[in-house]
Write a structure and sequence with these properties.
4 helices, 2 domains, about 200 residues, single chain, about 25% helix, four-stranded antiparallel beta sheet
Length: about 200
């Protein structure tokens, strides 16, 4: 009886080994296999400063950075428009405003719901991979205690123009306060304390 039990046990052991080897061979022949690797990239700050500094920033030729800041009526957004002058006119018509070079004290109509948009430009060094631009390689984070925006809150990014001559990627990053819009009370003065434009390369 013991011999028979040992023979049966040995057969099961052998069968298990054979099945294991066959499984390994099948698995090894099924490649290629997905691999997780460190791509050697990390987030770099392209520009960092206050609202006033961002408004005064003027990009040199070939540089990536912040182009303009918009305060757009929440009820209808023009933030996907690539032409800055069009958005500026739209802001003015709705009693809102925008900040560009040397114009960073913006007066907004109180109790008007608005979204904040920051237009940026990324170059090949910052967001180009092999043969195309990657919008996920750019981000803008901002802070405004006066608007109840926590430290380094990430904005939502929208592609405005992926240049056909493969020179730049234009994007608008915006925050609509989780769909509720922002507003100011009468005679309020609000600071945007920090803006960070970053690239992953």
């Amino acid at each position: 009886m013991e011999k028979r039990y040992e023979i049966v046990r040995n057969r099961f052991v052998r069968l298990g080994i054979i099945i294991g080897v066959m499984f390994c061979l099948i698995w090894m022949g099924a490649g290629p296999y997905p691999q997780l690797r460190d791509d050697g990239k990390s987030w770099h700050i392209i520009w960092e400063g206050s609202f006033g500094q961002a408004a005064e920033a003027e990009l040199t030729s070939g540089a990536g950075g912040i182009l303009e800041i918009f305060f757009v009526n929440h009820s209808g957004s023009a933030l996907t428009e690539n032409t800055s002058a069009t958005i500026e006119g739209w802001c003015d018509d709705n009693g809102l405003g925008y900040a560009s070079a040397d114009d960073f004290n913006v007066e907004l109509a109180h109790s008007t719901l608005f979204d904040v948009g920051i237009k940026v430009r990324g170059n090949k060094t910052q967001c180009w991979r092999s043969d195309k631009f990657y919008d996920t390689d750019l981000r803008v984070r901002w802070t405004s205690a006066d608007l109840s925006v926590g430290a380094d809150t990430a904005m939502t990014g929208v592609i405005l123009d992926n240049s056909t001559d493969n020179t730049y990627l234009w994007m608008m990053f915006y925050d609509d306060n989780s769909g509720s819009g922002f507003s100011l009370s009468k005679d309020a003065s609000v600071d945007i304390t920090s803006i960070k434009f970053e690239a992953y390369y």
